[in-house]
Amino acid sequence: MDTKETSGIRRHEVNPRTLAIDRWMARLINVGGVGVIAAVLGMLVFLVAQVVPLFRGAELEELPSAQLPAGVAALVVDEYGELPCAVMPDGELRFHRLDGSLAKSWRPDLPGRSVTAVRAYPRDGIVLMGLDDGSVAEVKVGHRSRFEAAGARVVEADPALASVLPIVPGAALESVHHVRGPAGRVVLVRHASPAGARLVAVKVAERRALGGKVRSTPSAPAAVGAGLAGVVGEVLMANGERILAVLADGQAVVFADADGSYPEVQRFRPFPDSPGARPTSLGLVLGDVTVVLGSDQGHEEAWSLYPQRQADGSEVRAFGRIHVNEALGGRADGFAPSPVNKCYVASSRGSLEIRHMTTGTVRWSGPPVESFLAGFLSKNHDQMGVLESSGRLRRWKVDDHHPDGGWRAFFAPIWYEGGTGPEHAWQSSSGNDEFEPKLSLIPLIYGTLKGTLYAMVFALPVALLAAVYVSQFLRPELKRVIKPTMEIMASLPSVVLGFLAGLWLAPLVDGHLVALLLAVLALPTTALVFGTAWSRLPLAARRRIPPGWEFAALVPLLAVSVGAAWLAAPSVEAALFSVRDPGTGQMVADFREWWRLATGMSYDARNSVVVGFVMGFAVIPVIFTIAEDALSNVPPALTSGSLALGASRWQTVWRVVVPTAMAGIFSAVMIGFGRAVGETMIVVMATGNTPVMELNPFSGMRTLSANIAVELPEAPVGHTHYRALFLGACCLFLMTFVLNTAAEVLRQRLRERYKVV
Amino acid sequence: MTTSPTRIQVNPSVPGDGRPDYIRIQDYGFWYGAKKALDAITLDIPERQVTAFIGPSGCGKSTLLRNLNRMNDLIDAVRHEGDITVGGRSIYDPTVEVISLRRRVGMVFQKSNPFPKSIYENVVYSLRVAGVSDRDILDETCESSLRRAALWDEVKDRLQDSALGLSGGQMQRLCIARAIANQPEILLMDEPCSALDPIATGKIEELIHHLKAQFTIVIVTHSMQQAARVSDRTAFFYLGKLVEADRTEKIFMNPAQSQTEAYISGRFG
Ligand SMILES: Nc1ncnc2c1ncn2[C@@H]1O[C@H](COP(=O)(O)OP(=O)(O)OP(=O)(O)O)[C@@H](O)[C@H]1O
Ligand SMILES: [Mg+2]
After folding, report:
1. Pair A614, A598: CB distance under 8 Å
2. Helices (H), A537-661
3. Cα separation of A301 and A303, whole Å?
């Protein structure tokens, strides 16, 4: 070691090991720092990658067309789109391979009768045929697929005639429909009459006999709308409860099932905003309660059945316009619904599009087809096909994993089928297959902010006042105990708090609500009254209690006030919150009932008050600790300076200490805020997780974080629901990011302003 | 109140040059916890004069000074004996509010401590806490205090700027302006010039000279020259005890105690 002697004292040079350690530590710290940044960015990239597909439209790639015979009446395509079945106007079923060759031809055995109308139900693999003697034949197309030993897929067909039912004896049928609902089958036919086309409906009871054979017993045919004539198009909806017919003058008429007869119940004119427009396409989207109407001028509207309040106060399911969609490219001339979701193919003279009914978005748009005879979307939502009148079947491969995604689905109010107006709703799953998930994130964002708001309303005053008290007024020996205790509280697992909240506090609050509300009022009031009285007391009396121990006089008073609140609660409840019991007619004191009646809002046992209180408990230690540090770090010279100028302790705190510590206090509040926004376990356990959008303190909420915790385990990976949960995570991230950035900017400015030399 | 029967007048012949004794310290002892910092101090400080406390570091000058307006009350586990009266009234009288005591006994600290507020708000702070909100009074006080502190010309165009942007000397003068804004009777100054250059020091000394017409000033200083220049009377402390207090010329020319002489002439620890 290099040492130099100067005036007897040796100078020790720096140890090379010290330098080496210094270098290595610097490197290690760099690696750690960069690693943290990389990890955060990696997480962000992962989140964004999960979310981006939700906002993509459909991507289509045209496949080679197949040639079918010209003049096809209807089209039924198998699951894989490999063996399209062309239904010819005379009832022949022609199965063609994609290279155009004929695989099979089959004709129903209907001696002496000829086919006059055909309708395909591709989803069920059924073709209905209307006959010239007024009967309806039901044909099963019988597509089957099997896998050969080599793994190759073979699609075959085995058509069969299922039933023939006479409906309007002697009349040649122009159009046929049917539907099978829980109440049986309903068949609807249109036939010509001297006055114009008329509709006739028949209910058919079907009973499966022992041998597996179905025995059908049709009821008496009912003239729809008492024989209203001039129908140009019709659909049978809602399990046969409603029939919607479009008349030649463009009006739509609705008929409702009334024990076998179908009286007219409603009449409306589609495209009310453009009186000249006539409907030129009409179709039902999946679910059979919504019709999409296209006009000769390219308008498109969706009309749906939903409960509407009538003048007499009753609620009746009636049609109303739920969407006015983006205009089509030109005259609407074709419609084909998806068998699996709310998408449909909309063809017009100017474009061919895939649209989604619920969100009202255009998923894909392409050039128009030559002429639209029939179209389909496959059961896997991976193929689209359009049959032109020349017999050319154009086919596309569809790449659209999230047809129900898009900005509107997650953030805009949406009018769902059956709803009475546009709404923000989160309802991601249900037992019903035809159920459509509602994935609006707005109620969750709302719930997050609501929970945070209630937590902060409780936590901020308590934590900040406690921090001021402990840092400025409390005896140092007590402070040495209280500070670490609060820090331990900060590390209390929130699941424990949530557990306490859900199982202990919620029932307690529920049972003693008025007492607790009174206590909440009584505590600060007592403290304020005590403070006022104390400051009025003669100096000599105040001297009796050493400075810093004043709380010893206050605490028993607080206990007394809580006790008084507890005792007074029943009489206060009886005096202020009595309601008449509808059962016995007597007045009963019940705040919960009173709240429901007085405000019209709901009351849940697991409500925002409980959440705010317990979540407040989770954030109080965090805010307290940081704010207390900030306040304690205010240089004593400033405090002394203020006191030496004759300021009281409170004035010193308020005018000097708090402003100087403002940046730190602000950080504390923001960190508490961040914790409340992201808090999960407490909300999961202490709220009903109901995604309601109301500020009502006695209802629950569903927060973004709780939503992720509850639903992610059961969301299938890669599905819309799964990605929507990640979108929620992104929103949460964005919220905290924006909040923290804004807070940091503000904090820096505060720091600049109140920086101490 | 402990009244000492043997009241030691350090120099009975010079009781403040005939001026009334304004602050009387009697047999005053002070403890920080178990450590005794002041021991049986008895000293009279006359009105409208400058009294300098001198003595080696750690001898208790600041402690005594801070006790004159009870700033030491803030420290934990302190204890005192004896008494201090200001204008005839004990500062420990249970009917005396500490706050009103401090409004009468202003203080300038060794290290300047302006609040992180504007220059203006710093100066009028004592008025604000007294509840004055009349703009005219505040403006007037601000100007007159800054003028008396010889700072007005330097800051009159930037009153709303942060006080933290001032130089060290300016800050110290700001603290003086702040201390005199509310017209205290006594001004305590703990080494007000220790961090200042000779020019700023000169300004503050001049200031003290002017202020003594209105205020009773007690100044702690390590500079013998400063004590000689500004003070009328000087008290020499050593190890928590008052060694000698007398007219400044007397202390510097002809001290009664050999310790005092040794300290003044620089032959000392
Ligand atoms: N807050 C305190 N707690 C405990 N002891 C203290 C405290 N302040 C001062 N002392 C002790 O009291 C004694 C007197 O201190 P004081 O500050 O009065 O000295 P001083 O004469 O002002 O010295 P200096 O000239 O260095 O400022 C010192 O021994 C010091 O260690
Ligand atoms: Mg000192």
Report:
1. no
2. 539-542, 551-576, 591-599, 608-632, 636-644, 649-652, 658-660
3. 6
Strand partners, A445: none
The residues in A 449-478 lying below 8 A from B, measured between CB atoms, are 476
Q: What is the pLDDT of residues A275-320, one digit of tens each?
A: 888 889 999 998 888 999 999 999 999 999 898 888 888 888 888 9
Token pair belonging to A250: 């463009």
Neighbours of A423 (CB within 10 A): 15
**Backbone phi, then psi, for A225, in 5-degree steps?**
60, 35
The CA B226 to ligand 2 mean position distance, Å, reads 16
How far apart are the C-alpha atoms of B172 and B110, rounded to whole Å? Answer: 9
SS3 A183: coil
Please choose, from the candidates B85, B89, B74, the residue with its C-alpha nearest in 3D space to the C-alpha of residue B43. B85
CA dist A305 and B47 (Å) reads 97
Please tell me the class of the B21-264 domain: alpha beta
CA of A662: which chain B residue's CA is closest?
Answer: B116
Q: What's CA B122's distance to the chain center, in Å?
A: 19
What are A97's two structure tokens? 């391979």
CB A201 within 8 A of CB A259: no
Residue B5 pLDDT exceeds 50: no
Give A-chain residues touching B182 at CB under 8 angstroms.
Answer: 645-646
Query: Rg of chain A's alpha carbons, rounded to an integer?
Result: 37
Coil, strand or helix at A49: helix
Which domains are delineated in chain A?
A: 442-511+604-753 (1.10.3720.10)
ipTM field: 0.88
Please tell me the pTM assigned to this model.
0.82
Strand-by-strand arrangement of the A392-399 sheet = A59-67, A392-399, A383-387, A374-377
